[in-house]
Specification:
This protein is of the alpha/beta class. It is 55% helix and 18% strand. It has helices at 35-45, 76-81, 113-123, 138-148, 152-198, 205-217, 219-235, 240-251, 259-288, 293-313, 318-334, 339-384, 425-428, 431-445, 465-478, 491-494, 521-532, 539-550; strands spanning 2-10, 13-19, 24-29, 62-69, 89-96, 102-106, 109-111, 124-125, 391-403, 406-415, 423-424, 453-457, 483-487, 499-507, 512-518. A hairpin with a 2-residue loop joins strand 1 and strand 2. Helix 5 packs antiparallel against helix 11 (318-334) and helix 6 packs across helix 10 (293-313).
Length: 551
């Protein structure tokens, strides 16, 4: 339970300290005195965000500290999981710095807001969990019925399976998408590889073809030029080789007369025979050089194929194309067949879905078993709060697929008037009716929810008089099992508190600030009397206040 709350330098509060006890504590005060500020400070303990604008003195830090008595050891696992010191009296502290930064501590160990909020959620129900906003939510309706049906263990098991189910669904979707993309990519790679394989690439082929094409494209010029050179060397009248033969013969008689002449003769003979061999080569090349248009077309077609593939794959020769071909073949070999993984995931999905359906049937059976009594209890308690003609019904529909709460879609239907048509709560309930309906439902599920401290912020909205008194009695009974804190404008509810705090404003020299004090019996009489009438209160109001406290 909440043992104490200390607030320093927050909003209009300079410094206040509140002590709490078992049972019911009420907090009252004039409108605008600062009751909501206390709730806002407590919200910081629950992990809500704030900024430096919340500081009373913007040059100093704000500190909100709450002390809790842990009555059992059920939270030890939480402390252990987050590496925190477990203490029977656990202190949660939140600090807001002038810079806008925030720091959070559990038993003096720094924690983040998420951890702070998770622990606080185990300790306090700050009316937001079961407020008139939640009562509109379908998920909340399921949670209420499950709490009454004691479905906690079954739901924990179901949620564990359902989370696995959702992961498997996501995994299957990813596998199917990956496989589809893989197949598309594989088809493209196979198409590219087939093009290259069909081209029957050979390293160096391109260079040879390009050279042969040059020859064929210039075959006429080559044949004419080489034939002319051959004629000048060996065939024509006055051919060079004939003249050189005559000169070679002339050297014959004198070549052996000296070593120098012999060397000159050998050199001349070498030139003669080299020209003779050259002339033969010119003749052979000229003879075999043909103007072959068909072969030229074949070469051009082949080179067009090679050039097109090179442009497609952004490479410059056939050697690089062969490297691309090897790379595509390696990539094709690397494609993984996902059929086995898909089959395994599908099989597990079918198995876990069958388990979810079985659990859903059990959840539905247990829900259906408690709904009639729950509906009757709600109607009965509403009747006690002067809503004798109110109708309340829990409607369930079966889902097509497992959801986070089973196969049931649940909704609360309500009408406060005799003969009225049942409708969704948000479409038919007024503010006062919502307040009463919220309290009734909360009182019925409170024992099933392990929240030691329950804080009601103006649960009396839209009600007064006898209804407020009956609501106060209901809160008082709820306080027999839970620590209750009620921030209220109602004197009837205010009279039911074991402790009574009064929030008021004080005007200092330069500014106004909020303060709070615990009231004794006489002070409570005066405060309640003022709430009943005026300030100063009438004698009748004072007597009425005394009667409320006496009862």
């Amino acid at each position: 339970m909440l043992k104490s709350l200390k607030i320093k330098n927050y909003a209009l509060i300079r410094k206040v300290e509140l002590d709490f006890s078992k049972g019911m504590t009420v907090i009252t005060g004039e409108t605008g005195a600062g009751k909501s500020i206390i709730l806002g400070a407590l919200g910081l303990i629950l992990g809500k965000r704030a900024d430096s604008k919340s500081l009373f003195n913007p040059e100093k830090k704000c500190v909100v500290e709450a002390s809790f008595m842990l009555k059992d050891d059920r939270l030890k696992s939480f402390f252990k999981a987050h590496e925190l010191d477990y203490e029977k009296e656990t202190i949660i502290r939140r600090e807001l710095l002038p810079s806008g930064k925030s720091r959070s501590f559990i038993n003096d160990s720094p924690v983040n807001l998420k951890t702070l909020g998770q622990l606080s959620a185990f300790l306090i129900d700050l009316h937001q969990q079961f407020d008139t906003l939640d009562i509109h939510q379908i998920d909340f309706h399921v949670q209420v019925v499950d709490a009454i049906a004691d479905n906690k263990a079954l739901m924990e098991d179901y949620i564990q399976k359902y989370n696995r189910f959702k992961k498997l669904v996501k995994r299957k979707t990813v596998l199917e998408q990956t496989q589809a993309e893989s197949l598309r990519e594989k088809d493209f790679v196979m198409f590219q590889l087939k093009e290259l394989l069909d081209a029957n690439l050979e390293g160096g082929e391109q260079q040879g073809l390009e050279q042969e094409m040059k020859v064929l494209e210039n075959a006429g010029d080559i044949k004419q030029t080489l034939s002319g050179i051959y004629g000048q060397l060996a065939e024509n009248e006055g051919a060079l080789l004939g003249q050189m033969e005559s000169l070679r013969m002339a050297l014959g008689p004198v070549k052996n007369l000296s070593e120098d002449l012999n060397k000159l003769s050998e050199r001349f003979n070498g030139i003669y025979f080299e020209l003779q061999e050259l002339s033969g080569d010119f003749e052979r090349i000229a003879d075999r050089t043909d103007i072959d248009g068909e072969r030229l077309s074949e070469i051009r077609e082949r080179l067009d194929i090679l050039y097109r593939l090179q442009n497609k794959h952004f490479v410059s020769d056939d050697h690089a194309l062969l490297e691309v071909q090897d790379s595509l073949q390696e990539k094709l070999n690397g494609f993984v067949n996902l059929d086995a993984d898909l089959d395994a995931v599908t099989a597990e999905l079918e198995l876990i879905k069958s388990e979810l359906l079985k659990d859903s049937e059990e959840l539905r059976r247990r829900r259906n078993a408690v709904i009639p009594a729950f509906e009757e209890q709600v109607r009965s308690k509403l009747s006690q709060l002067s809503m004798q003609h109110a109708r309340f019904e829990v409607r369930m529909n079966v889902l097509d697929e497992p959801g986070p709460s089973g196969m049931d879609a649940m909704e609360f239907l309500f009408n406060a008037n005799k003969g009225g048509t049942l409708q969704k709560i948000k479409d038919v309930a007024s503010g006062g009716e919502l307040s009463r309906l919220t309290l009734v439902i909360k009182s019925l599920v409170a024992s099933a929810i392990p929240l030691p401290t329950m804080i009601f912020d103006e649960i009396d909205t839209g009600i007064s008089g006898d209804v407020a008194l009956k609501m106060g009695v209901m809160l008082e009974r709820l306080a027999a099992e839970h620590q209750i804190v009620s921030i209220t404008h109602s004197p009837q509810i205010g009279s039911k508190g074991k402790l009574h705090y009064f929030v008021f404003k004080e005007v200092g020299e330069n500014q106004t600030y909020s303060n709070i004090r615990k009231l004794n019996v006489d002070e409570r009489v005066d405060v309640l009397a003022i709430m009943l009438s005026q300030d100063p209160p009438s004698k009748g109001a004072i007597e009425n206040a005394k009667e409320l406290l006496a009862n």
